[in-house]
Amino acid sequence: MCGRAKRPDDVSEIKLDLKIDFDEIDDYQPSFNAAPTAKLPVVVAKDGARTLTLMRWGLVPSWATGLKIGYPTFNARAEGIESRAAFRAAWRAGRRCLVVADGYYEWRDADKQPFAIALGNRGPMLFAGLWDVWRGPDGTALKSFAIVTTAANALLRPLHGRMPVVLPQDSWAAWLGETAAGDGALKALLKPYPGERMTLWPVDRRVGNVRNNDPDLFAPRAETF
Predict the structure, then answer these.
(1) Is residue 195 assigned to a domain?
(2) What is the pTM of this model?
């Protein structure tokens, strides 16, 4: 599962690559060890315009009675996503998004050695996501999201059986609702990204502590035992 991610160092090129129309991000800061409840850059589309904003990682559905539900809902399994209570309303309402990261971390099941995972060209990863808006007792609105996961590809399977859904550029418009696509077509997008277009490397075990947040966490390291 994807439970830690690297927030991009900068979003200026991302805004160009994704043809962003509106930017709601002020005073952007990178993060090398973002965990659920942190904020990540997210792309949403409405009326043909794309907006880049920050949302809380861990989807809090509009009907929730509090924020605690947001931690177990940081990932959404693609299988049955349209019927699970936490995600059903967002799916039906078409609240789909692209979550932007430079990569993410996964721990090998066998020995808990952490690895960084990225695209082979080190470009930004665009994860399929669902988002929702929850309003607190005082009326304050909270926008939050979940990253959609699927079965791991051959490269990642030795680490873990699941991986985030990484969407290629030709899928962005359909996922964002800019082009018409039924549930079947959307579900067909939720598949493993080709392993030959990805890379991974062992990293320092310090990444396991969310208080650690420095560039060295994403750097290749010899495996430690």
Answers:
(1) yes
(2) 0.95
